[in-house]
Amino acid sequence: MFILLSLWVLGYQVFSTYVVEKQHSLSTIAGAMQKRIDKYRIAAYQLYDASGKNDTLALQPNGTQEVRLRPDVVFCRQAA
């Protein structure tokens, strides 16, 4: 009886370790894919914005130039 119980505990530990390892690898892969998707999304937004404008270096009325770093982040720099 003790041998069966110890084999069951050993099998449970091995299976648990395997599942945790696979969970970690899947979360790492998913995180890397999400970063890659975000980079492609930013590049696509920049290409879309650039293709829709005739003058990509158009200045704002107050002399600043708008630069989109990400879809939700805008950096304004003073035109020289």
Give a description of the structure:
This protein has 80 residues and is an alpha+beta fold. The chain has one domain. It contains 1 helix and 2 strands. It has a two-stranded antiparallel ribbon. A hairpin with a 2-residue loop joins strand 1 and strand 2. The radius of gyration is 26 Å and the shape is rod-shaped.
Structure summary:
This protein is α+β, with helices and mostly antiparallel strands and 80 residues long. Helices cover 64% and strands 16% of the residues. The chain has one helix at residues 2-52, and strands at 64-70, 73-78.
Cα-based radius of gyration, to the nearest Å: 26 Å
Strand order of the largest sheet: 1-2
Specify the helix fraction band: 55-70%
Structural class: alpha+beta
The number of helical segments is: 1
Strand content: 15-25%
**How many domains is the backbone divided into?**
1
Q: What's the number of extended β-strand segments?
A: 2
Shape by Cα distribution: rod-shaped
From N to C, what is the helix and strand string?
HEE
Describe the largest sheet: 2 strands, antiparallel
